[in-house]
Amino acid sequence: MESKLRGSHFITEQDWTIEELETLFALAADLKAARAEGRPTPLLPAKTLYMIFFDASTRTRNSFETGMTQLGGHAIYLSPDRMQISHGENARDTAKVLSRYGEGIAIRHCAFGEGNAYLRAVAADAEVPVINMQCDVYHPCQILADYLTIREKFGNTRGLKLGVAWTSAPNYVRPVSVPQSLILMMPRFGLNVTLAYPPEFRLMPEIEAQAKANAKAAGVRFEITHRFEDAFEDADVVIPKSWGPLVTTRNTAEGLRLIEKYPTWRCDRERMALGKKHLIYMHPLPADRGREVTDEVIDGPQSVVYDEAENRLHVQKALMALTM
Amino acid sequence: MESKLRGSHFITEQDWTIEELETLFALAADLKAARAEGRPTPLLPAKTLYMIFFDASTRTRNSFETGMTQLGGHAIYLSPDRMQISHGENARDTAKVLSRYGEGIAIRHCAFGEGNAYLRAVAADAEVPVINMQCDVYHPCQILADYLTIREKFGNTRGLKLGVAWTSAPNYVRPVSVPQSLILMMPRFGLNVTLAYPPEFRLMPEIEAQAKANAKAAGVRFEITHRFEDAFEDADVVIPKSWGPLVTTRNTAEGLRLIEKYPTWRCDRERMALGKKHLIYMHPLPADRGREVTDEVIDGPQSVVYDEAENRLHVQKALMALTM
Amino acid sequence: MESKLRGSHFITEQDWTIEELETLFALAADLKAARAEGRPTPLLPAKTLYMIFFDASTRTRNSFETGMTQLGGHAIYLSPDRMQISHGENARDTAKVLSRYGEGIAIRHCAFGEGNAYLRAVAADAEVPVINMQCDVYHPCQILADYLTIREKFGNTRGLKLGVAWTSAPNYVRPVSVPQSLILMMPRFGLNVTLAYPPEFRLMPEIEAQAKANAKAAGVRFEITHRFEDAFEDADVVIPKSWGPLVTTRNTAEGLRLIEKYPTWRCDRERMALGKKHLIYMHPLPADRGREVTDEVIDGPQSVVYDEAENRLHVQKALMALTM
Question: What does pTM read for this prediction?
Fold first, then answer.
């Protein structure tokens, strides 16, 4: 399994089988244990990962770069405005050249309708693995971390109820990639998923259809609702998170206006009380405190957001060690 | 001593005892010797330091990043405008998340009235050491380097006279952190300190009070004067350096105007001649040549500015090796 | 030879003897083989290279930084706007201070009339090697890679015909450093060089004179022509590449206008057919596809642009390992 993954791209978790993902989770758990023990893990000695960021980042950049250091290699932070991409270099040249120098290319590109296409263009010409650090369609590394966290908390994940709920958060239109990757992958691991959003905030139709197909194949429930509380009732896990009405409108002002139409879509103690006793709260961060979630919840005992953030490191190290 | 320092923050040298600082200087001297000998010093293998810079830097960034490489680890240069801090991430989330990935957080944040508060907020939630790379109140790493330099030049530092003098330098309002950390720490190591500035350029009252208390406890002199030459007369060491009238006015235009009111506060050969024969000239750099100091002095035989800059590397490596 | 090179600057390949350059190419070939074999090459353990970029870069930054990682060290990417250079720090202070921390300083500074002078100013005060990552006059690392590529393709390079041709490319005025370094170095290795450009695009007169002298000393031909096809006829290697009319005018608008005066100076299949059967196409990248060269040529079987880009890595690693 491991050798088969060497050289593989990771643009969406949908392209990887359950067995392949289980290999990754097993290695992630071992790397996490190694770090706790202080055991060195020089799996990628003197190897280089290129990280191209079209968008700002804290967790993603630092977890990848730190991960490469812990694996014995080095990650280079690249910003398109400082590269020849700003002089019109195409994806093919970037892919071909970086493939000659280092061992992997990771890209964040969230512009709706552009990001995934750019990743696929680079992947088509790259001779090294291309890793998706979040695009307009998918955020697979986040979802790997989310799943590892859920498994750590519950052991067996089959039959759990996961609520994925839209929340209202101002100032900018957030990508839809997190909820999309969540509804795609979680059913494959046996979780029943309830997705709640106001009508204008639907996800890409082909992704919702794929999520339904994944759930059916796995024998679990996947339902879409327009009532916030449905995501919380009797849930084991909730991930309330804002995203933009990108499928409805590409107009930013209109998008921001629609977000303000539903100010009560906020995770608070009352909503948390609707779930099972052991309900956990997750969020990929950064959360808009006060708007998406009350401090009481995100800083409270049900919140596992820092464990979730930490797991980014471990799953990504496993991903790099397997593919690069 | 060493094990007690592991995990300690370094926000101000005032929080560290003389014994702890001596441990640091001893290790710094050993690391300096190791570098001269070509002896490897992998004290922080595969470890990561996050460097968050709210302000520009040459010496600080390069000495920390190079230091981590020489210790076997890696330092990541972070700029808030490229991080989710620009999307409103709070200090708590930054602290908690980076603590999960790496082994130390270093911050430069010089905005008057904000920087130190931000460092303390991060330190409150960080599970790894927080290192001050200069804030609005302190610049402890600079002063460690300054002290190591003085000790190297003079051996015993007890009874030496250090003159800390304000100088006039245009274009921007420089922080008060260098003179403040100087007057706080130097008396504790037995130096008599004369601080000279025009009235509008006084330092934070609580810092001046603490400096007086430190001098009293150490049995040395600490005096404040408004005559430039007082800092030079009979001195062993002078550190003439510009800072802004931040305690007097927060208005930048007014601040720049006050700086221009005292153009003769410049270090030149005549002033240097007032000191002892072996008087040395120090400056943390960058100096405004021609305004703060004449080329003749800064490039002359009494200047030890490059030794001083080099010592940033050695003291910071010791600091990281002891705390991280 | 190797020990003599330790500490040497590399501002122009003109300063290095053929024997020194051959030492470099031999090490480059060995490092290339080592990488293919997976053999570690920790020649610069824990050493630091500072890369100061006044201009954008993809290949240069990534090949140097990756190279340092592969040699066991680390390269720091520095941008003057984030350094104290933006606060007026002079070349001397930058040189002196970085020399105290790390083992090499690499600089890209292409501003016409400024770049080379800055490099020489830093070199004058640096106590570590200064490496030219492209200035207004020279791009020696590119030409090292070009020559290694030609040698790999042809074995013996003596008597080959190299055509260096100007091409028309819009939007910005490109430096003259690539053609200048090409005409300087290639004759020394026995290549006959034909340089073709429209009259307004002549190179710096002293560089053309030096190229003639180099050719004469080596007993090969060097000719300048104003007919595009002359560079291709009977050639073994062509390097068609745009540059600005910097010697003719420093006015950008006028420069861009002159570039548009010669739209037919584009490398296409017809021109390639003028060369020898085994003619190869080279370009330092990024190429303006459609304007400088047709996709058919740059993506076709005669193009060796990615091999050429890859060789940047190998020659620069050899350069760093020999000098640092």
Answer: 0.96
